[in-house]
């Protein structure tokens, strides 16, 4: 008997199978399931590269009541755009959790990771946003910055965006691109200018040093920090976490190890139990903010639960279509 060919699905097939609303719902449920202890996932693995700078994240896991387990590799090499290449790449391996049989290879080229990160950022932005959002701020100018602007603006119901990047020209290019997509976007000269106009700000840079000073952030602001997703990265002044009324984390232990929260704990500015689970906030079990005067922070490091949820949905849709 000849073996059954391995199912390999490419980026175009995945884009057809999964819509934005599907991914938002799947990621939200994944965050909630993770907070409820319904996900089995070991600590993520990370390969860090220096010349050229880049990283490879390896995440794996399964839902306790699910039918598959997943191993995902997601890469980011930050000098690729200067070479005419995409920054991100990757693939997802999907296995039967009862037999270990390989079910599919999702050759997504990093797309699933990019979009599930965008979904998580938008959900976290809404979870801690004040009652009236003046404008959305974006710290960063890369691929994820564009996704965060689009997804978060849609979920928050705003169109005004201020963007800061280390290179002003790139911030202008991103603002122009977002303008073509119906947003009122403009580049800011400084981080301080972003926070002067915006009370919801998403940071999505590969920075290894703080780029958001505490003095720039006024009361009533909600920050979603995405960049510190591996050891050595940092975007926020740790004093901000000391000031925060609510700190939401996607995973307590990951954020202690290599998130923004870990920097503040190691500086002895906050205690190890200062956070609440973003999944519990999304489930309505704990508040994401108490008043519009609160400073709130969501610290996101990325979860295997999100990858499992999207891979499960993708394989089900693709198998049904075929």
Indicate the topology.
Blueprint: E1 8-10, H1 11-17, H2 20-35, E2 39-40, E3 45-50, E4 53-63, E5 68-77, E6 88-96, E7 102-107, H3 111-128, E8 136-139, H4 143-156, E9 160-164, H5 168-180, E10 184-187, H6 191-197, E11 200-203, E12 208-212, E13 222-225, E14 234-236, H7 239-243, E15 246-249, H8 252-258, H9 260-266, E16 276-277, H10 278-282, E17 296-299, H11 304-321
Parallel strand pairs: 1-7, 8-9, 8-11, 9-10, 11-13, 12-14, 13-17, 15-16, 15-17
Antiparallel strand pairs: 2-4, 3-4, 4-5, 5-6, 6-7
Descriptive report:
This protein is α/β, with parallel strands linked by helices and 322 residues long. It has two domains: 8-112 and 305-321, ornithine cyclodeaminase, domain 1; 125-302, Rossmann fold (3-Layer(aba) Sandwich), CATH 3.40.50. Helix content is 36%, strand content 27%. It has helices at 11-17, 20-35, 111-128, 143-156, 168-180, 191-197, 239-243, 252-258, 260-266, 278-282, 304-321; strands spanning 8-10, 39-40, 45-50, 53-63, 68-77, 88-96, 102-107, 136-139, 160-164, 184-187, 200-203, 208-212, 222-225, 234-236, 246-249, 276-277, 296-299. An eight-stranded parallel beta sheet has the order 10-9-8-11-13-17-15-16, with helices on both faces. Strand 6 (88-96) and strand 7 (102-107) form a beta hairpin. Helix 2 crosses helix 11 and helix 8 packs across helix 9 (260-266). The longest helix is centred in the middle third of the chain and has 18 residues, at 111-128. The chain starts with 7 loop residues before the first strand and ends with a helix. 49% of the residues are buried.
């Amino acid at each position: 008997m000849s073996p059954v060919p391995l199912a390999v699905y490419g980026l175009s097939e995945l884009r057809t199978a999964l819509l934005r609303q599907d991914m938002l719902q799947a990621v939200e449920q994944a965050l909630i399931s993770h907070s409820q202890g319904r996900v089995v996932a070991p600590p993520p693995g990370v390969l860090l590269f220096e010349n050229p700078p880049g990283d490879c994240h390896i995440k794996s896991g399964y839902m306790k009541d699910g039918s598959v387990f997943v191993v995902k590799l997601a890469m980011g090499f930050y000098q690729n755009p200067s070479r005419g290449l995409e920054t991100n790449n990757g693939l997802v391996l999907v296995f039967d959790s009862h037999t270990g049989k390989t079910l599919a290879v999702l050759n997504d080229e990093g797309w699933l990771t990019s979009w599930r990160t965008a979904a998580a950022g938008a959900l976290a932005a809404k979870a801690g946003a004040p009652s009236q959002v003046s404008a959305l701020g974006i710290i960063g100018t890369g691929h994820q910055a564009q996704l965060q602007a689009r997804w978060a603006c849609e979920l928050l119901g705003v169109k005004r965006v201020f963007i800061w990047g280390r290179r002003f020209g790139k911030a202008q290019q991103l603002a122009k691109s977002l303008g073509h997509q119906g947003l009122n976007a403009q580049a800011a000269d400084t981080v301080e200018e972003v926070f002067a106009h915006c009370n919801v700000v998403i940071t999505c840079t590969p920075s290894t040093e703080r780029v958001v000073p505490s003095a720039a952030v006024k009361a009533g602001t909600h920050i979603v920090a995405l960049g510190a997703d591996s050891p050595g990265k940092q975007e926020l002044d740790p004093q901000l976490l000391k000031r925060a009324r609510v700190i939401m984390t996607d995973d307590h232990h990951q954020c202690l190890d290599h998130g923004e929260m870990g920097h503040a704990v190691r500086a002895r500015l906050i205690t190890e139990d200062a956070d609440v689970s973003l999944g519990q906030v999304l489930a309505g079990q704990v508040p994401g903010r108490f008043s519009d005067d609160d400073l709130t922070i969501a610290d996101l490091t990325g979860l295997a639960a999100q990858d499992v949820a999207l891979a499960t949905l993708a394989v089900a849709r693709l198998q049904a279509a075929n």
